[in-house]
Amino acid sequence: MADLVTLAEAVDAAVHDGDIVALEGFTHLIPVAAGHEIIRQGRRELTLARMTPDIVYDQLIGAGCARKLIFSWGGNPGVGSLHRIRDAIESGWPAPLEIEEHSHAGMANRYVAGASGLPFAILRGYAGTDLGAQTTNIRTVTCPFTGEELAAVPALNPDVGIIHAQQADRAGNVQMWGITGVQKETVLASRRSIVTVEEVVDHLEPRPTAVILPAWTVTYVAEAPGGAHPSYALGYSERDNAYYQHWDSISRDRAAFTRWLDGVRRAPDAARSGR
Amino acid sequence: MTGTGSRSTDAVPDWTTDEMMSVAAARELRGVATCFVGIGLPSTAANLARAIHTPDLVLIYESGTIGAKPSRLPLSIGDGILAETADSVISVPEIFNYWLQPGRIEFGFLGAAQIDRFANINTTVIGTDYSRPKVRLPGAGGAPEIAAFCGRVVVVVRQNRRVFVDKVDFVTSVGFGTGPGDRERLGLPGAGPQAVITDLGVLEPDPHTCELTLTRLHPGVTLAQVREATGWDPAVADALRTTEPPTQTELETLRRLEATKGS
Predict the structure, then answer these.
(1) B138 closest CB neighbour out of A73, A90, A185
(2) Mind telling me how many Å the CA of B36 is from chain A's nearest CA?
(3) Average pLDDT over residues A183-200
(4) Per residue in B66-86, pLDDT tens?
């Protein structure tokens, strides 16, 4: 059953140096506050997986928490580059970053295989692209029924899966709605999980199309209102588009980023609002 | 020809080159049933098409929103207005596995950091050493599967020599590979890029050679400008046409949509 704890307690218990960690949330419900707590607790040598590394991974990688990134699209959506990630890849600052990249379909299917208890996933994809030559994690498999050659990617089973949701009840059952991306698969594929929520409520009101994660599939639930900022939580907050623009000026400059980092390490509450 | 009537080529246009691109892209969607949409110019074009001539166009965003009907331009592919107005909101694995991969989606828009004469697209790295790139780009996202599985694809990109290169540094998404027969050999079911719309004109693949061929110049653009902006000597159609200028309705609707973007 899920333990209701503070975010600091959840990260302390669940995230260890060297772990494979996936923070998911597809443009909506991005677990940014949890990322800040990982920075604050100084985790190192993480392998970070995420379909769309955006601001939250720019921050974690700029802070030196990661040794490897597994991803399918890395950018500041609608703004431009992630300069901390580029600096790590192009110049090794603050530390060299190994990368493994896929297409969205490949990454999504890696989580699906992980959640399904299968060793790998099959998809049509990658044919004719240069992506397969860059990693041993994109291969082909022959269909035993038709003889057709298909792409194969290994299951992704993170040590820790971290997501943000709108609500949990006091037993730790989680409910999220709106765009729910690949979060269910991430939690089910992971050995341990942390779900930060906008609000812990007495009773979850059933909602059409909502995704429910029963308490027994989740390790830790932590209340973190506004914890998706600058992304949003449908029904609770709006996307802070200005902050995505603002991040560009912080991310571009090592000194400006270092000042931002000092702020996060010193002041948890300021970091939660993203400022 | 319909529209605003004759226009002297040296007149100062009362629209921007980006507006011409959006309008030309939106026209490609006339009569289309389903469109896979990325954010930015494709999203603008798709919503312009929906507002002007194809009101029933089903917009599908890779965030999992099918049939989104935004009343303003969304600011990201995960904008809340997409989920709130969609026929259905599904997971990301479903979008790729159940909807894109089986070829259910008729039309896809793509952008490019580099595109070559066979319409192969690079959005991964600039530079030929993958492990030490000159510029690290965002990567693949949904583009390889859009290029493979949409019934047809239209590429929308500004034209200059950095972008239009003889050979892309990295093939992220396949156009026509090295030429005729490659898509069939690779098992790519969609027809591939059928038009590349730029700020200067439109290129279309030659039906025999698959090589991108300039078929239209936007009003006021010269062939010399296109040659100057292309990293190879581009084939030019015998019947080179001029794009119909944006109509008053197209421009007014586009500007009204752009104004909804806010900050």
Answers:
(1) A73
(2) 14
(3) 98
(4) 999 998 888 888 888 898 999
This complex has an ipTM of 0.93
Task: Give the pLDDT band (50/70/90) at residue A222.
Answer: very high
What are chain B's domains?
17-259 (3.40.1080.10)
Q: Considering only the top CATH level, what class is A3-102+157-256?
A: alpha beta
Residue B91 in contact with partner chain A when CB distance is under 8 A? yes
- Specify whether the CB–CB gap between B173 and B181 falls below 8 A: no
- Say which of A128, A149, A234 has its CB closest to residue B80: A234
Give chain B positions within 8 Å (CB) of A72. 139-141
Q: How many CB atoms lie within 10 A of CB B185?
A: 11
- Is there a contact between A72 and A135 (Cβ–Cβ < 8 Å)? no
CA distances from A103 to A125, B11, B96, B160, B195 (A): 8, 45, 10, 27, 23
pLDDT tens for B233-247 read 999 999 999 999 999
Q: Among all residues of B, which ones are annotated catalytic?
A: 62
> Are A104 and B138 inside 8 Å of each other by CB?
no
Q: CB distance B148–A124 less than 8 Å?
A: yes
Structure tokens of B145? 């599967």
What pTM was estimated for this model as a whole? Answer: 0.94
